[in-house]
């Protein structure tokens, strides 16, 4: 990569096409729009490359406010990276930014969880997430496990 992508908070509309292409290509585009994307409590992050005076998303992650074991938590959803941009540290950079963003918000839950695709388990484990369930199948997306990360407040 000669030019480095800009990594920042994003609007959900900026990342939905990438989600669709990477995660839901065999489904209608609407399948890449998640309930809650439009809420102020949702946090969207993206890595963007410049193109024709604008930018296009090459990696993305979304966190929706929800619950884990009856406690407030943020669910990671729709994490995706375009094939040509994988293994370049973008996913790590997005999750690092997301964690800093959460820790700066004193009212945000400190528990993060996700339904992780089985091939991505190692990636998440390297970043401090842990598997907390048996394998299960999501019909449109294949085998998954639930993973969890608790953020520690560091002053």
Number of strands: 8
Number of distinct helices: 3
Order of SSEs? EHEEEHEHEEE
> What number of structural domains do the residues give?
1
CATH architecture: 3-Layer(aba) Sandwich
So what's the oligomer here?
single chain
Helix content: 10-25%
Q: Which stretches of 5+ consecutive residues score pLDDT under 50?
A: none
Strand portion: 35-45%
CATH homologous superfamily assignment: Gcn5-related N-acetyltransferase (GNAT)
Sheet/helix structural class: alpha+beta
Task: Characterise the protein shown here.
It is built from 3 helices and 8 strands. The protein is globular, with a radius of gyration of 15 Å. The protein has helices spanning 12-23, 90-104, 121-126, and strands at residues 6-10, 43-51, 54-68, 71-81, 111-117, 130-131, 136-138, 142-150. The protein has 155 residues and is of the alpha+beta class. A hairpin with a 2-residue loop joins strand 3 and strand 4. Strands 1, 2, 3, 4, 5, 6, 7 and 8 form an 8-stranded mixed sheet that branches.
């Amino acid at each position: 990569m000669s030019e480095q992508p800009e990594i920042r908070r994003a609007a959900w509309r900026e990342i939905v096409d990438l989600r669709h292409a990477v995660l839901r290509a065999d489904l209608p585009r609407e399948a890449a729009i998640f309930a809650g994307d439009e809420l102020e409590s949702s946090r969207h992050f993206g890595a963007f490359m410049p193109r024709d005076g604008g930018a296009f998303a090459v990696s993305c992650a979304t966190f929706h406010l929800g619950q884990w074991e009856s406690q407030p938590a943020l669910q990671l959803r729709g994490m995706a990276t375009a094939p040509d941009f994988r293994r370049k540290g973008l996913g790590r950079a997005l999750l690092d930014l997301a964690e800093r963003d959460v820790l700066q918000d004193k009212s945000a839950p400190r528990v993060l969880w996700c339904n992780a695709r089985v091939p991505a388990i190692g990636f998440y484990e390297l970043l401090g997430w842990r598997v907390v369930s048996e394998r299960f199948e999501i019909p449109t997306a294949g085998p998954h496990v639930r993973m969890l990360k608790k953020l520690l407040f560091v002053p």
